[in-house]
Structure formats: structure tokens, C-alpha cells
Design goal:
Helix content: 25-40%
Low-confidence stretches: 242-248
Order of helices and strands: HHHEHEHEHHEEEHH
Structural class: alpha/beta
Strand order of the largest sheet: 3-2-1-4-6-5
Distance between the termini: 46 Å
Strand content: 5-15%
Shape: globular
Number of domains: 1
Radius of gyration: 18 Å
Mean pLDDT: 90
CATH architecture: 3-Layer(aba) Sandwich
Largest sheet: 6 strands, mixed
CATH class: Alpha Beta
Number of helices: 9
């Protein structure tokens, strides 16, 4: 069975659904190969260099070595994340593109330490400035037409229904690992001798900024380890309608 043409999928919800069903019968590696060959370029892979990030980084760049890899450095990443990015960058010869929040908009340490008391609204405002706007700027400046991301349905309830491919703000967004579970991730890491993020071994199952990330302890769900349990998503993989304008 041939896949629906991406042009048709962009114009018809039914064709897009058919394309997602077709991708569901392919391996993750086949989805990457199809995306790189078929979807409009330029292509780029985003990575937070989080707990299990080595899988997508390895899988995608083995098929296109010079593919831009976008890392959003919020200014509050763990030192271990910086070292992990440096180590994987050297080992995999990554074409790393680092984007940061605009200096004039970035929050200062005093405001960041108040994030918990500011609640969901404060978290959303912080994320728009430190994550969403830099990512939008990266995609625009790099001319990205196809954005590849390593997010998975098993990671959280908020991601349980993600498709393999979607349209986002006029560009394709491809999730080749969408149907993988933690065992699939472990098997791939073992097969290719790839590491977890160093904080994984200290109980961190989802790793973002220092002030909004906690290790998993007894009585907590994985979703409680981020953003004080108030929310799960940082905004990068959510609807951006109006978000960038509000961050300006």
C-alpha cells in the first residue's frame, strides 16, 4: 500500500488520518527515512537532551548526519544536561543549533524562584519566553519545513493521543517514536551502546529546568516530577496560537 501524498494530507483531514494509519505499520526507522525523503525540507530535529534523548538523536542523524539539531537552552538547564549535550554532540557529530531566550525578555533568578507560587499562569508565561519563543525563532531562522521530535505517547497522559505526523503552523511535525514504550527505548540504547541522561540514575525520569524538575519518589506519578505537579507540558509540543505574541 502506498502512503497518501503529503500534499493531499495537508489539504484533507481524512488523507492525514490515512497517512497516520500507514505510518503506524512502519518501524520508527522507516518513518524517519520516509519523512526525510518525502516531506518538505528543510528538516530539523529538536532535542531537550533529556532522559532518553540519545535514541532519537542517534536514529535520525544516522540517516542524515548534517541534520540541524535544535536545543533550547533556557538558562536554567542542569549542568549534567550541558555535559550530556557536549558528550553526545561529540560522539554523534551532531550539527547542534543552540537557541536561548531573548536577553531583554528572560526572567531573572528572583522571578524564577517564585514560579511555584505563580501557579500555572506563571509557568505558562515563563515557558513562552524561555522555550516557545526561542523554538519558534529557531524554526523560522533555519527555514524548517519539517520538524522531527522524539516525543512518545507513553510519556504522559497529555501525549497519549499524539499522531505520527501532524501539521503545525504551516509545517510538518513528525513523531517517529510515538508508539514506543520504555522497553523499546531500553532495547535501542542497549543495542547501540547509548547512554541515558546521567540524572536518570538518580531517579529523574523527565528532565527539564533545575527549578521545575524533581526526581521520582515513592507516592509520586511521573507527571508529578515536572512543574510541581501543576502541569506536564512545557509548551513546545502544544498549540502555539498567540503564545509567541504574548512572549514578545
Amino acid at each position: 500500500m502506498s502512503p497518501p501524498d503529503p500534499v493531499s494530507a495537508a489539504e484533507s483531514p481524512r488523507a492525514l488520518a490515512d497517512l497516520n494509519r500507514w505510518l503506524g505499520h512502519k518501524t520508527a526507522e522507516e518513518r524517519v527515512a520516509w519523512g526525510l525523503e518525502t516531506l518538505a525540507g528543510n528538516h530539523a530535529l529538536s532535542s531537550s537532551f533529556g532522559a532518553q534523548a540519545a535514541v532519537a538523536l542517534h536514529m535520525v542523524t544516522r540517516q542524515q548526519a548534517d541534520l540541524p539539531v535544535i536545543l533550547i537552552d533556557t538558562g536554567y538547564l542542569f549542568p549534567e544536561t550541558h555535559r550530556f549535550a557536549d558528550e553526545l554532540g561529540a560522539r554523534l557529530a551532531l550539527n547542534l543549533k543552540i537557541y536561548r531566550p531573548r536577553t531583554e525578555a528572560a526572567w531573572n533568578d528572583a522571578n524564577v524562584t517564585r514560579l511555584r507560587e505563580l501557579g500555572v499562569d506563571g509557568l505558562n508565561r515563563y515557558n513562552r519566553v524561555h522555550k516557545v519563543e526561542p523554538m519558534q525563532r529557531a524554526l523560522d531562522e533555519l527555514g524548517v519545513r519539517t520538524w522531527i521530535a522524539g516525543i512518545r505517547r507513553a510519556q504522559s497522559q497529555s501525549r497519549a493521543d499524539i499522531d505520527f505526523i501532524e501539521l503545525r503552523d504551516g509545517r510538518w511535525k513528525l513523531h517517529p517514536l510515538a508508539d514506543w514504550n520504555d522497553r523499546d527505548i531500553w532495547n535501542y540504547l542497549q543495542r547501540h551502546d547509548l547512554p541515558y541522561h546521567p540524572l536518570w540514575h538518580e531517579g529523574y525520569v523527565s528532565i527539564g529546568d533545575t527549578h521545575t524538575t524533581r526526581p521520582l519518589t515513592a507516592g509520586m506519578s511521573e507527571e508529578d516530577t515536572r512543574f510541581f505537579g501543576l502541569k506536564r507540558e512545557c509548551g513546545l509540543h502544544e498549540d502555539w496560537s498567540g503564545a509567541v505574541e504574548q512572549a514578545a
